[in-house]
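> example.struct
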């Protein structure tokens, strides 16, 4: 069932889901970098946190009847998180360890700003995203 009023709204929603989770991928990679475990275990822990966060948000949307819950949202959010993890590994090779704390603060601010924008934008323009009157 297609709940979008246009292809633009659908594509905008997909892009928003991906972009919203890129900072989470970066931040979770920074957060778990100090763990004393194998690198692949850290990656699985970060990926599990991203997928778990996305799944939690979709369950909350379903239970609270806010918008439409969709497995594709979980997939797009996870893709954004994986892009964030990739960006972290790229940036890590160029960044000294003492700068990590500053980046950590910036990522937190960007994460909250992007998510706040996404929530406000969705609330204000809900009629663009879903067909409220079928």
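> example.seq
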């Amino acid at each position: 069932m297609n709940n979008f009023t246009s292809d633009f709204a659908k594509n905008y929603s997909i892009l928003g889901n991906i972009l919203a989770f890129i900072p989470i991928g970066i931040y979770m990679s920074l957060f778990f970098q100090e763990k004393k475990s194998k690198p692949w275990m850290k990656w699985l822990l970060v990926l599990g946190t991203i997928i778990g966060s996305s799944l939690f948000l979709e369950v909350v949307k379903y239970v609270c009847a806010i918008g439409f819950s969709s497995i594709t949202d979980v997939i797009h959010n996870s893709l954004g998180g994986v892009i964030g993890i990739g960006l972290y590994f790229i940036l890590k090779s160029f960044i000294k360890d003492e700068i990590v704390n500053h980046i950590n603060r910036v990522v937190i601010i960007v994460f909250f700003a992007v998510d706040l924008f996404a929530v406000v934008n969705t609330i204000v323009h809900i009629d663009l995203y879903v067909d409220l009157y079928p």
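> remarks
The mean pLDDT is 79.
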